[in-house]
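Repro case for the chain-ordering regression, as requested:
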Amino acid sequence: TQLLEQSPQFLSIQEGENLTVYCNSSSVFSSLQWYRQEPGEGPVLLVTVVTGGEVKKLKRLTFQFGDARKDSSLHITAAQPGDTGLYLCAGAPGSSNTGKLIFGQGTTLQVKP
Amino acid sequence: NAGVTQTPKFQVLKTGQSMTLQCAQDMNHNSMYWYRQDPGMGLRLIYYSASEGTTDKGEVPNGYNVSRLNKREFSLRLESAAPSQTSVYFCASSRVGSSYNEQFFGPGTRLTVL
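-- result from build under test --
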């Protein structure tokens, strides 16, 4: 069974601080996605990374896919209260063409003003 | 476009009662999914449908059944609800041929089984 382990599970920081969330697996994924979920809503896709070593930036968010395509990280610079939410990583198994994704447990981020 | 819609938004059931959660998408996606979300456990796949007319079990299918009514609609049925099925249920869809399997989610159904 393929698993994605996210860390930390919970993070509470002050506005302006930087943070990194990690998503690790022993399995290879053909692509990896990051979703953000706000209370009472469904997850919304932030980014997809597909190439080993790939780095993508979305304003203050930087996403990286590991060289071996087994891990990923999300770095937020100068966090703001609006960044508060649940961040989920999800991997597409390399051998699957069904559209299925494997989700991590999620990281709950709280940014205090 | 409404994207993915789910009904109802909230539901309270007694143990043993049955109910059907409805999901519809207007993005012409072939694949649809049902997940449950519990604290600290991320999203766990219950059932999915890779195309109209096909359904397959996910990670946690016990106690659930699904119907892919047509390309747009994918319903989830609880035949005899149990307290362990108290959760938030999300429906999602994705585009056939999408090599990245990007999924689009509905707003969720919050189910409590007493």
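Ordering looks correct now. The first strand of chain A starts at residue 5 and ends at 7.
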